[in-house]
Design goal:
Elements: H1 6-29, H2 32-49, H3 56-80, H4 106-110, H5 114-119, H6 125-135, H7 141-148, H8 152-168, H9 177-192, H10 196-201, E1 203-212, E2 224-225, H11 227-239, E3 245-251, E4 254-261, E5 264-273, E6 280-286
Parallel strand pairs: 1-6
Antiparallel strand pairs: 1-2, 3-4, 4-5, 5-6
Helix pairs in contact: 1-2, 1-3, 2-3, 6-8, 7-8
């Protein structure tokens, strides 16, 4: 039996961590191509230092987080002048999609939702790193302190502030996949039936619709707020969607509604529901063509 070369071993050790690292970087940056670039930069550093690394998972996590903290500042400068609401790049996570690391629990799935990732923009890079490492990857405070080279007390402060800021802007959504799928089907039925009253009954009083067109395509440049306004907005959008096919797919580890014209993805919508009432709380719609690179031209088979 031929023994693997050192290069093969180094590659294998890195590849064991790639999905986790990509998911970490995406949660930090909100853009898949930027996340993949950060992971590639980590790979280049790994090829230089691999032989001296005793704990690959910790070393690679530290490198990727630090790369993302640096990148985040430059990305946010660009997002300051963004036209209309900014939403993260949607990513297909079903069969044949992109592996973004752990999504087994409701909390892990929530850290991938477009609504949550948008809220994370309000955090400092250090707060965001602490929040993502703890909530999505389950690292205890002491480990995070070691990874970020911070006192544990500071890590706890960052976590407290992050939870306060995120909690102030978010109601928890329905994370159970089966129930979310059923609620989404009801929502689409009401939209397709042009029944405004039925649509309004599915919305929370404080429902919000966010549309990210980036100034490239027509989209609402401010959040649409309130049950009646959101219902009229969604119904109006549906009336304009002639010649469009609609598919329900897994996007960002949750339910996504994808509208295509031929092989062109026009809109990716992710509805989020109140777990107590089943009402739609937030509808995030990405229309900016520049953010569709990860979405497949055709719905996944099956």
């Amino acid at each position: 039996m031929t023994r693997p070369t050192g290069t093969d071993v180094a590659t294998a050790r890195f590849e064991q961590n790639r999905a986790r690292l990509t998911g970490l970087a995406y949660r930090m940056l909100g853009e898949l191509h930027e996340a993949q670039d950060a992971v590639q930069d980590a790979w280049l550093r790994w090829t230089v230092h691999e032989e001296e690394v005793r704990d690959p998972e910790a070393w690679l996590t530290r490198v990727v987080v630090n790369l993302c903290r640096t990148r985040l500042g430059a990305l946010r400068d660009g997002r300051t002048d963004y036209v209309g609401p900014w939403l993260p790049e949607p990513v297909p996570t079903g069969p044949g999609g992109v592996d973004l690391g752990p999504s087994d629990t409701a909390t892990q799935r929530e850290t991938l939702s477009l609504g949550m990732l948008r809220l994370l923009e309000a955090l400092s890079p250090a707060e965001r790193a602490v929040f993502v490492l703890h909530e999505a990857f389950g690292h205890p405070h002491a480990e995070i302190a070691d990874l970020l080279d911070l006192p544990e007390a500071t890590v706890r402060q960052h976590m407290h502030r992050a939870r306060e800021r995120v909690g102030a802007g978010r109601r928890r959504f329905e994370a159970d996949p089966e129930r979310a799928a059923a609620l989404t089907a009801r929502f689409l039925s009401a939209v397709g039936g042009q029944d405004l009253a039925a649509l309004e009954r599915l919305l929370a009083d404080d429902a919000v619709a966010l549309s990210d067109g980036g100034g490239v395509v027509t989209a609402a440049r401010r959040p649409v707020e309130g049950r009646a306004k959101v219902a009229r907005f969604v119904a109006g959008q549906a009336r304009q969607a002639s010649g469009v096919t609609i598919a329900v797919e897994q996007v960002n580890a949750g339910i996504g509604v994808v509208a295509r014209a031929g092989e062109q993805v026009l809109v990716v919508m992710t509805p989020e529901f109140d777990p107590a009432t089943g009402e739609l709380v937030l509808l995030s719609s990405v229309l900016n063509p520049a953010k569709m690179a990860a979405m497949p031209a055709q719905p996944p088979a099956g």
